[in-house]
Amino acid sequence: MQAVPSFTVTSEITGDVYVVAVAGEIDLETAPQVRQALASAEASDARVIRLALSQVTFMDSTGIALLVEHTERSRANGNRLRIFSSPAVDRVLEISGLVDRFPIDR
User: Fold this and answer.
1) What CATH number has the domain spanning 8-105?
2) If you ran DSSP here, which 8-state letter would residue 15 be given?
3) Which residues contact 5 (CB under 8 A, 6 or more apart)?
4) H/E element holding 36?
5) pLDDT per residue rounded down to tens, the chain (106 residues)
6) What's the whole-model pTM score?
7) Domain-wise residue ranges, the chain
């Protein structure tokens, strides 16, 4: 039997940077937790919201929709969101043709 990968979302505020770090798979089941963490970050007065996806191993269309939603909201509210990606996320965004729509830092 294959082990189910663990999923975690953690948040940390350091100075004026609010970091939301995600590990594991972003899909229909886990996206609400990421959405909630990002909503908390957006409600803060942090100058930068850093979405750390470097430990994400899989992302489906639900994850893409989540990134679109929060990127658009960020553009309307000061462009605070910065996304730090992973190879798995990069691949999904490249295949979908959306990689240039997101504020990705490498």
Assistant:
1) 3.30.750.24
2) T
3) 24, 25, 57
4) helix 31-43
5) 555 568 999 999 999 999 999 999 999 999 999 999 999 999 999 999 999 999 999 999 999 999 999 999 999 989 999 999 999 999 999 999 998 999 998 7
6) 0.91
7) 8-105
How far is it, in rounded angstroms, from Cα 87 to Cα 67?
A: 16
Show the tokens assigned to 63: 């994850």
**Cα separation, 71 vs 77, whole angstroms:** 10
The sign of the CA dihedral 100, 98, 74, 20 is negative
Structure tokens, 54: 């470097």
Radius of gyration of the chain (CA): 13
